[in-house]
Amino acid sequence: MPYENSHQSYLLPAVGEDDTLKVTVVYTSDQATLSAMQSAATLAGSLHANLTLVYPQVVPYPRPLNSPPVLPAFTEKRLRAIASQIPMDTDIHVCLCRDREDALATELRPRSVVVLGGRKRWWPTAEKSLARKLLRAGHEVIFTETE
Q: Which whole-number Å values give the CA distances from 36 to 5, 43, 77, 96, 114, in the listed order?
């Protein structure tokens, strides 16, 4: 279900339900996400924003959507271990989905501030492709590169 709010201006960044700014980190890999979380925590701290880590967990088509190969509780525990390395409270959302981009379209509010990480490569990567798609969707995207 897409986020709809006729009272929010398209030119303003996305805010949480309690009108606080929200910085969202999209999980890509453990190392890249940790790097993105460090950048996002610095940004969120200076903006007095909430920090959220989103993990779109793709469930393959032969399986029912509510029966992923890896239990969401296990995934959430792993994400909490990553988030515990950041000195900031982090909300964690595990989204069961068939397509990562569709899940993010549903999870992210219009004009969201999104941070994601990826390895430094000279060729296009899946993470950089996702960053471009999020930019085209109207989000503010910060890409952090890891070695």
A: 28, 10, 18, 22, 10
Distance in angstroms (rounded) separating the CA atoms of residues 59 and 68: 5
The strand ranges marked E within the chain are 22-26, 50-58, 90-97, 113-119, 140-146
pLDDT of residue 10: 32
CA proximity to 39, closest of 57, 54, 51, 55: 51
pTM of the model: 0.84
Q: Rounded to an integer, what distance in angstroms lies between the CA atom of residue 15 and that of residue 113?
A: 9
**Residue among 127, 49, 19 nearest 39 (CA):** 49
Q: 71: Cβ–Cβ under 8 A, 6 or more apart, which residues?
A: none
